[in-house]
Amino acid sequence: MSEPLFERLALIGIGLIGSSLALNARTNGLARHIAIATRRKETLDKAEELGLGDSYHLEASEAVADADFVILCVPVGSCGAITREIAPHLKAGAIVSDVGSVKGAVIAQMAPHLPSSVHFVPAHPLAGTEQSGPQAGFLELFTNRWSILTPPEGTDPAAVTRVEAFWQGCGSNVETMTAEHHDLVLAIVSHVPHLIAYNIVGTAADLETVTQSEVVKFSASGFRDFTRIAASDPTMWRDVFLTNRDAVLEMLARFSEDLATLQRAIRWGDGDTLFDLFTRTRAIRRNVIEAGQDTAKPNFGREPASGERAGTKG
Ligand code: NAP
């Protein structure tokens, strides 16, 4: 087997993303030693029980000591405080990264604390599920998904290449862009869709004329697909909206304008406008499938529940 990319990988935070990285680092031989740190003993014990690492720490500063690669896998809003805590313990020449869903705010929080002797290569894997915690991780999470690197200007290209190799070793495709562009792209492909899901599930829960039990009972009509996204981790998503405020508000403004157009088309019986949009959106779905980002199987390849036929019902 070839030499691992890193001698000691420190994962700070061991939820869905951290545990999936640990499984990849171990199985794909990306690091010789995997040091795991998390704040709660309960989570650390679970990680140990699952055998995710080689050493387990309640102090992040212990995990990063002597590490040549450190990845923060915690909610975006916690990255600054953790970086301040670990900064004095980082080894010269180490690479520090993260997996946060927002990049501009993470860089603003982390960069001021990092010593000039380390390389900072922020990253974001575009892969996830609505599950959290160390038991939620799985080896294939990053396979064929994109990971975006947003190295600040002046970052050592050799460090960027090593981080790229790490993500490729996890089965991911890698692209590099500015943090600002990342945040704009993610606002429309991820953040606004999550907000819409949270909102529609919230609206349904608050309805007075349709009972909650009816919403649940008849959910296969389309509603349940929103409930999957709206079951995502509340801490993570609160932090995403608080830290990517400008890009989300910009995309929401566009969304609201387009929604008003649809509202008008429905009010005035303008079927052409509706039909044209629905035709264009079908083509986008085909593009997503052709790009290998989803399955072409009906109903996302779900096994039909008892008594149910696959497909979206009206
Ligand atoms: P998760 O499963 O909820 O795990 C979060 C981890 O962070 C746990 O180890 C938790 O520790 C720790 N943590 C939580 N709050 C903390 C705090 N205030 N201070 C220190 N540690 C804290 O989360 P995840 O889904 O892996 O997400 C982690 C990061 O990945 C987030 O930045 C998120 O934006 C990004 N991300 C998520 C997804 C996704 O779909 N889930 C996709 C791409 C990127 P304890 O359990 O010990 O409290």
TrEMBL record:
Pfam families documented for this protein: PDH_C, PDH_N
Give a yes or no for keyword Transferase in this entry.
Answer: no
Keyword Signal in annotation: no
Instruction: Give the source lineage, highest ranks first.
Output: Bacteria, Pseudomonadati, Pseudomonadota, Alphaproteobacteria, Hyphomicrobiales
Originating species: Jiella mangrovi
From which residue to which does the signal peptide run?
A: none
Q: Which residues form the Prephenate/arogenate dehydrogenase domain?
A: 7-296
Q: Which SUPFAM superfamilies match?
A: 6-phosphogluconate dehydrogenase C-terminal domain-like, NAD(P)-binding Rossmann-fold domains
Q: Which UniProt keywords apply?
A: Oxidoreductase
Protein name per UniProt: Prephenate/arogenate dehydrogenase family protein
Positions of the UniProt region annotated as Disordered: 294-314
The record, for InterPro entries, names: 6-PGluconate_DH-like_C_sf, NAD(P)-bd_dom_sf, PDH_C, PDH_N, Preph/Arog_dehydrog, Prephen_DH
> What's the domain of life for this entry?
Bacteria
